[in-house]
Design a protein that fits this description.
Helix content: 10-25%
Number of helices: 5
CATH architecture: Alpha-Beta Complex
Strand order of the largest sheet: 2-3-4-5-6
Shape: globular
CATH class: Alpha Beta
CATH topology: Peptide Deformylase
Radius of gyration: 16 Å
Structural class: alpha+beta
CATH superfamily: Peptide deformylase
Largest sheet: 5 strands, antiparallel
């Protein structure tokens, strides 16, 4: 089932999400719905708070970025062909590498894209959809998508990395999003 994406301004996007256990109700269905929702809205990642569930869960598929690259971009990132996975109860173990800029967007903040600096590499401890524990290091564009989604379960948004003046300049756009004065080709739910 395709779920509506929670828009900027909704309190759930600012919550630090609690961990979950294998007995979380209908978790398999929730994950399946998240995949369907993410692909339907042309996203490469989706965190549970974005579908109004305040839990430490996100999904991502950086393979889509590689599939849609131009020929001259083919060697830009070291993590080809990308990674697809479910991340439950994730915690960052270590950040490494230089910070680099990439033009990021977010399904909860449509039509706004900005260059955001993030580390090249992240080591993450997380559980998969079967609650098997992993400690894994990701780099390149995959690390970036993971860090963006990880921020969501920590109550942080990509625009938080912008300088105050830049944030001030986009205030009207952000207000329009939170008031539902925006057209997108996927379902959204706006703050009351």
């Amino acid at each position: 089932m395709i779920l509506p994406i929670v828009a900027y301004g909704s309190p759930v996007l600012r919550e630090v999400c609690p961990e979950i256990t294998p007995d979380y109700p209908e978790l398999d269905k929730l994950i399946a719905d998240m995949w369907e929702t993410m692909y339907n809205s042309n996203g490469v990642g989706l965190a549970a708070p974005q579908i109004n569930a305040s839990i430490r869960l996100f999904i991502m598929d950086s393979g889509q970025i590689f599939e849609n690259q131009e020929e001259d971009e083919k060697d830009d990132y070291p993590d080809a062909p990308g990674f697809k996975g479910v991340f439950i109860n994730a915690h960052i173990v270590e950040l490494n590498g230089k910070e680099w800029a990439y033009n990021e967007g977010c399904l909860s903040i449509p039509k706004i894209r900005e260059d955001i600096m993030r580390n090249e590499e992240v080591t993450l401890e997380f559980e998969d959809e079967n609650f098997n524990l992993h400690t894994k290091t990701f780099n390149g564009i995959t690390a970036r998508v993971i860090l963006h989604e990880y921020d969501h379960i920590e109550g942080k948004l990509f625009i938080d990395y912008l300088k105050p003046l830049k944030r001030k300049l986009m205030k009207r756009k952000l207000d329009d999003i939170s008031k539902g004065r925006i057209k997108v080709d996927y379902r959204m739910v706006f703050p009351k």
